Amino acid sequence: MVLIAPSILSADFSRLGEEIKAVEKAGADWIHVDVMDGHFVPNITIGPVVVSKIRKTTKLFFDVHLMIKDPVKYAEMFAKAGSDLITIHAEVCKNLKSDIKKIKETGCKVGISINPEMPVKIIEDIISDVDLVLVMSVHPGFGGQSFISDVVPKIRKIRDIIDKTGKKIYLEVDGGINAKTAKIAKDAGADVLVAGNYVFASKNYKEAIQSLK
Ligand code: DX5
Ligand code: ZN
Question: Fewer Cβ neighbours under 10 Å: the N or C end of the chain?
Answer without folding.
Answer: N
